[in-house]
């Protein structure tokens, strides 16, 4: 009985880890894409 519980726990942890990595990628990629496109600031405003 312990081995079945241990096996299920390991599989659940792997599934959670995979889902977390996938969701992290979905959040990071659009953010980095949007931050890469910044409007050019006029030189008068920088002085």
Can you give a write-up of this model?
The protein is 83% helix and 0% strand. It is rod-shaped, with a radius of gyration of 22 Å. The longest helix has 35 residues, at 2-36. It is mostly helical and 47 residues long. It has a domain at 1-30. The model has no long low-confidence stretch (mean pLDDT 80).
Overall average pLDDT? 80
- Which overall shape is indicated by the principal axes computed on the Cα atoms? rod-shaped
**Class from secondary-structure proportions:** mainly alpha
Instruction: Spell the H/E element sequence.
Output: HH
Biggest sheet features: none
Radius of gyration: 22 Å
Question: Helix fraction?
Answer: over 70%
Put simply, the count of helices is: 2
Give the strand content. under 5%
Low-pLDDT parts are none
Q: Span from first to last CA?
A: 72 Å
Find the count of extended strands (DSSP E, 2+ residues).
0
Q: Descriptors for this entry?
A:
mainly alpha; rod-shaped; 0% strand; 47 residues
How would the blueprint of this fold be written?
Elements: H1 2-36, H2 43-46
Protein name: Cyclic lactone autoinducer peptide
InterPro entries: AgrD
Organism: Clostridium pasteurianum BC1
What does this entry show, briefly?
The protein is mainly α and 47 residues long. It is built from 2 helices and no strands.
